Structure formats: C-alpha cells, structure tokens
Amino acid sequence: MAAEVILLGFWPSMFGMRTMIALEEKGVKYEYREEDVINNKSPLLLEMNPIHKTIPVLIHNGKPVLESLIQIQYIDEVWSDNNSFLPSDPYHRAQALFWADFIDKKLYVCGRKTWATKGEELEAANKEFIEILKTLQCELGEKPYFGGDKFGFVDIVLIGFYSWFPAYQKFGNFSIEPECLKLIAWGKRCMQRESVAKALPDSEKVVGYVLQLKKLYGIE
Amino acid sequence: MAAEVILLGFWPSMFGMRTMIALEEKGVKYEYREEDVINNKSPLLLEMNPIHKTIPVLIHNGKPVLESLIQIQYIDEVWSDNNSFLPSDPYHRAQALFWADFIDKKLYVCGRKTWATKGEELEAANKEFIEILKTLQCELGEKPYFGGDKFGFVDIVLIGFYSWFPAYQKFGNFSIEPECLKLIAWGKRCMQRESVAKALPDSEKVVGYVLQLKKLYGIE
Q1: Which catalysed reactions does the entry list for this protein (chains A, B) (predicted)?
Q2: Residue B4: pLDDT above 90?
Q3: Residue A33: enclosing H or E segment and its boundaries?
Q4: Bridging pattern class, strands A63-66 and B31-34
Q5: In the 8-state DSSP scheme, what is residue A175?
Q6: Pure H helices in B41-180
Q7: B4 near A CB under 8 A
C-alpha cells in the first residue's frame, strides 16, 4: 500500500526544504523521494504536477498539493492539533503571508543573479541582495524568530536560503555578515532545530551544485 | 475621522478589481481612492506600502494589508459571517490557492506580452495565452463558477482579466472566443453580479489605456 504522505523533492531546492521542515515540525510520517529534476523527472512527478512539472510535490492519500507556500498552509491546517505555523489573527496572518510573498518575489530572483550574472548586473544584484536581507532583518527586529517567540511560517519559508548563503557569497564575491549579523544569528538559531538540520543540505554541497549549474548554463 | 476601510486602487488594475469585488461581495462599507500610479503616487500609498509602492492597498483601521490575493483572504477571514470565498476543506482550499497562483504566474505575464511584443514572440504569446485559458476552462469544467455553484476565490481572482480580453485580442491580433466558449460564458455570468459589474471597467476604456501604455513605453 502506498504511504499516506509522500514528498517529492530535490535536495538543493529551498522550496522543497520548506515542505520537509513543515512535515518534520508537525511530526508527520512521510516518505521522501528524491527527484532528478534536471535529467529525469519521474512519471509520478509528471502525473502529479502536469502543469508546472516542478518539485516539491506533496502527495496526501494519493492527491497532490502543489506550491511550497500552499503546502505549508495545507500541512498547518490538516495536522492542526500541534502548534500553528500561521497566527490565528487575520492581520498577523496577512503580514506573514506578505513576507513569504516578498521572499519568493525578491530574494529568490535576486539570489539567482549573484551566481548567474556578472559585471554591473552582478554588482547591482549583490547590493540588492543585501538590501532585501536588511529589510527582512528589520522585520525580524529583536524577536528570536519571525514568528515571535516561536518558529513559524516566515521562518520556514526563509530558512532554506540560509544554506545557500555561502554559494551566493562565493560566486557573487560579496559578504553578507557585516550588515546582517542578526539575520545570521537567526539562521544559526533555526539550525539548532531538528527539523531544519534535517532538511537543509551542507552549504558546501550547495556551492558544488551551483558550480554544476554554472557549467550547465555556460555561465563563467 | 478616517474611514475604517479604505481601498487604494487604480481603475485598469485587475489586482485592484479583485479587492473591490471581495469587499462588495461581503457588503463591507469602504472608501475607494483612485491612485495616479503612473505619474503621482499619493503620500498615503507610499506610507502604507513602502516596499513595493504598488496598489491595491487595503487599509483597515489605519493598518495596511498588501497583495491582492492576501487581501481577499483577509476580507474572507475578517468578515466571516457571510459566505466564504475559500472552501473550508484544506485540500479544496489548497486547490483554489493553486489556481490563483497559476493565474498570477502565467496569465498576467503572458497577457502583457500580447500587447508589448511583436513577431515570433507575439505569436508564441498568443498561443500560450489561449493554452492558459484552455487549462483554466478545463478546471472550470461544467460548473457555473470555479467555486462550484457559488462565486468564490478563483472567480474573484480571474474575473478582472475578462475586462482586458478585448485589449489582448486587439493588440495581439488573435481571437479568444472560438476555443474558450465556456470561459466566455463564465465571464458573462460573473458580469451579472453587482460586485463584478461595479469593479470592472468598460473594456473599450481598457483598450484606450493599453494604447497609452504602448505609447509610454515606445511599443509600436
């Protein structure tokens, strides 16, 4: 019989990391299946996500739930007996969803530029990347987590990027730490959680993966 | 005293239309303020949305709620005594959120290309646009609304684009109707609702606005 919960992922994907962390935080039993998204997507992936053909795919009782932000909310709603990731107050929920959207619109796109561009474009990307992190750091403020005293929705959404920081810095040739000490401390704090430590790959392995990507796309 | 609910919008924006429809459907009293987003954004807009500086902005008791999809969810949660836009079942909620995400990622971007590109790029955009609509039409199936028997979240998210259909067709020089009869019928059905009729501008006015945009951006 098929496992009740299956997660199709790809280890360097910060989107897949989110869903794994959410499952781990809720103590859900699941089967993880690594996808070869670059060379050979599985028939199950193509069947479950025929529109985008992307990971992560969360399969629950044979039915797909797509898009990492939606998956985290789904997990939060279905396994609702534990602590919630999202606040119950509508305004605070809206704020958490706003920051998640901000991360996906800004940080992912700009992060990619730090290893995929050069010259003036790279310089602008590096500056923008730091500005985005500073904006996030300002939102974090003096709280231990974006969720306040507890690790919550925005923490889950953002933390995967932390494993990419060394890659961004190495290929972009810039340094995050001087202006983002609090955010780095937040990343270290999150890494102490079992869920995060399990889902995030070794940063050096991410550096190696980005090197592969640069070769694949002919970026020098 | 300031009105409790203020909506900052810009009439041709399908994103702003969504939030207005959501407020109207819930019977919320609000003050609408038209923004000149191209030439002169108001100090209130810049204060309430300093990060993106975009409309729509929903201001509730002096506090901003940003991003149209989040605003619809917020309105659904705060004025929850009426019919819900989103289904209560987590799986159906996840599906509705998926289609909303699909519309924003695919339809908006591709729609823009129908009036902002030419040659082969335009031809590809026209084909893709029809494919996206056919995918949505397939999801609609034989239901009167995406929400089933009742007008719901995905209906609110998609309907604003309907007012842009004549502009897309005119400037892209292609025809939506032959392959999307059911979707057109859905659009006409939605237009019979007071909320939609109030929020959607006249399509010919949208055509004029796109002409202005083309001049502004030097697109011939």
Answers
A1: RX + glutathione = an S-substituted glutathione + a halide anion + H(+)
A2: yes
A3: strand A31-34
A4: unpaired
A5: -
A6: 43-48, 68-78, 90-102, 108-116, 119-140, 153-162, 165-172
A7: no
Residues of A in contact with B91 (CB under 8 A): 60, 63, 65, 74
Chain B residues in contact with A128 (beta carbon < 8 A): none
* pLDDT per position as a tens digit, A16-34: 999 999 999 999 999 999 9
Cis omega before residue A166 (within 30°)?
no
Q: Is A89 on the interface with B (CB under 8 A)?
A: no
In chain B, the residue whose alpha carbon lies closest to the alpha carbon of A97 is: B70
B74 touches chain A (CB under 8 A): yes
Note whether A90 contacts B74, CB cutoff 8 Å.
yes
Please state the rounded mean pLDDT for residues A37-46.
Answer: 95
CA distance B134 to chain A (A): 12
* Domains identified in chain B and CATH numbers: 5-78 (3.40.30.10), 90-217 (1.20.1050.10)
Which one, of A39, A40, A38, A44, lies nearest residue A8 by Cα? A44
Tell me the DSSP string of A54-112.
-S-EEEETTEEEESHHHHHHHHHHHTTTS--SS-SSHHHHHHHHHHHHHIIIIIHHHHH
Q: Is B217 on the interface with A (CB under 8 A)?
A: no
**At B3, phi and psi to the nearest 5?**
-60, 150
Look up residue A179 and give its DSSP letter: G
Please judge whether A70 and B135 are an interchain contact, meaning their C-beta atoms are less than 8 angstroms apart: no
3 state SS of B52: coil
Is residue B182 scored above 50 in pLDDT? Answer: yes
Residues 30-59 of A with CB under 8 A from B: 51
* C-beta atoms of B67 and A101 within 8 A: yes
Nearest to B71 by CA among A87, A98, A69, A100: A98
Q: What is the DSSP string of A152-173?
A: -HHHHHHHHHHTTHHHHHHHHT
Residues β-bridged to residue B31: B6
DSSP character for B144?
S
DSSP state at residue A51? T
Chain A contact present for B97, CB below 8 A: yes
pLDDT per residue over A84-101, tens digit each?
999 999 999 999 999 999
Indicate yes or no: CB of B102 within 8 angstroms of CB of A63. Answer: no
Q: What is the CA radius of gyration of chain A?
A: 17
